[in-house]
Design a protein that fits this description.
It is built from nine helices and eight strands. The chain has about 220 residues and is an alpha/beta fold.
């Protein structure tokens, strides 16, 4: 709890933290693999792909470091995901209230996702979650900021923020590692796609079991 004192800026992951995107993401990956003529794993066997960048996931799934093949897979994924897949998604219960409460408590809310920023904006707008955010950041379609640690470093520099005033909130080890690399406290959430052990091993300072628990913990003293 000591690590969370003095926090003013919340950096929030999207997939697995604010919304459950499994159907759209897994469906898009299966579509791409089928188009490439490769093996297509079952739905549950692809849930680990929610969190890392698509390029990391496809490199592992295709067992390749061939950038041309990886980019082809990403392009095929986007053929279906950017049309219908991004809406095969839904906010976790209580997330809208958490964002509204955090905003009213005086936090600055910034999205920090490995998803392309234009797609992330469409998802937030679709669910009317964008109204709560001060800034929305993500990767580019060309792969800039696929590494979330680089994205967080950019956000800190752009807004001249000090790391000890920020908190990274996410559901995977990638979020925790990105926060740690930038000396930002990190909070793991268990309603997404990372396990307690993965989050803890990656350096989570606190791990929330429910949205309600997170909301209570981040309430200002006067609101508790």
């Amino acid at each position: 709890m000591q690590k969370l004192q003095g926090i003013d800026h919340l950096f929030l992951d999207l997939d697995g933290t604010l919304t459950d995107p499994a159907e759209g993401i897994v469906g898009g990956i299966q579509y791409a693999l089928k188009k490439l003529g490769g093996d297509v794993p079952e739905f549950d066997d692809l849930l680990w792909c929610i969190g890392p960048s698509l390029r990391i996931s496809f490199a592992k799934l295709l067992n390749t470091d061939d950038s041309v093949l990886i980019e082809r897979a990403v392009d095929l994924y986007r053929e279906v995901y950017t049309v219908t897949g991004l809406f095969e998604n839904e906010p976790y219960p209580g997330i809208g209230d958490f964002l509204a409460h955090s905003k009213s408590n005086g936090y600055t809310l910034m999205l920090a996702t490995a998803k392309p920023v234009d797609v992330a904006k469409r998802v937030l707008e679709h669910f009317k979650l964008d109204l709560h955010f001060d800034q929305i950041y993500g990767s580019s379609n060309q792969g800039k900021f696929d590494d979330k640690a680089e994205l967080l470093a950019y956000m800190l520099d752009k807004h001249q923020l000090t790391a000890d005033r920020c908190l990274m909130i996410g559901d995977t080890m990638y979020d925790m590692a990105a926060g740690s690399k930038n000396k930002i406290a990190s909070a793991g959430v268990l309603w997404g796609y990372g396990s307690y052990e993965q989050l803890a091993d990656a350096g989570a300072d606190i791990i929330f079991t429910t949205v309600g628990e997170m909301n209570r913990c981040l309430s200002r003293p006067a609101d508790i």
